[in-house]
Amino acid sequence: RRHTRCSREWSSDVCSSDLTEAGLAWRDVQALAFGQGPGAFTGLRTACATVQGLALGLERPVIAIDTLMAVVEDARQAGSVSLDAPIWALQDARMGELYAARYRWADGHWAVDQAAQLWPLAHPLGQGLQAAPAQWAGHAVQADPDTLAPLLDTRCSGTGEDGVAAPRGAALIALARAAWARGDTLDAALALPRYVRDKVAQTTAERQAARA
User: Are 144 and 124 in contact (CB under 8 A)?
Assistant: First the structure.
């Protein structure tokens, strides 16, 4: 919770207080982790800028965490998925699309089976999931409940503590620790968001067409 609080408040004072409560100081920080994406453009830029500022000031490396991998890790921590089969992370990407990526658990850590991509809601399950039905986790159903709920309910849904798997702080921390153990760190200057999609928003005409 302390780690999540720091990431949300964007305040060095708050983080300093939490470090003090843990009996630590800024000099004890070895690296700083952040959710790299894919996700909301503003949120990714804010996370990236914050971690860069702290890391440059402390002269520490950063750890970029795959946000969709954090979704399946949250489901794993909730005990709601089988580690014997691949699992899809499916997240609402807005603008009529989903973020989708497939992972598998091997040798005690997650490995990428299929890198993050965008799927249109008009073809919501993608060729990969249709060809190899598998369990999934995320809040994809929120994008279009009428279309997606019947389709995804036929597959094993991985859930988190509130019924929906999400990139929560505990999942990010677990992935960060694993990355640190492998030596997967970056110079702060190389900490960049992973958008997957370059388009920020729909035009007025596109929004009107979608409503129609």
Answer: yes
Cβ contact 140:90 at 8 Å: yes
Is the peptide bond between 38 and the residue preceding it cis, with omega within 30 degrees of 0?
yes
Are the CB atoms for 141 and 152 separated by under 8 Å? yes
Burial of 13: CB neighbours in 10 Å, binned 0-12, 13-18, 19+ = exposed
User: Residue 22 — φ and ψ, nearest 5°?
Assistant: -85, 0
Report d(CA 87, CA 14) in Å as an integer.
36
E strands, 18-153, are: 32-37, 62-66, 87-94, 97-106, 109-120, 135-137
188 neighbors 52 (Cβ within 8 angstroms): yes
The pLDDT tens digits of the residues spanning 23-72 come to 889 899 999 999 998 988 888 889 889 999 999 999 999 999 999 999 99
Q: Are 175 and 24 in contact (CB under 8 A)?
A: no
Amino acid at 38: P
Looking at the whole model, is its pTM more than 0.90?
no
CA dist., res. 72 & res. 103, Å (int): 8
Burial class (CB in 10 A: 0-12, 13-18, 19+), 84: exposed
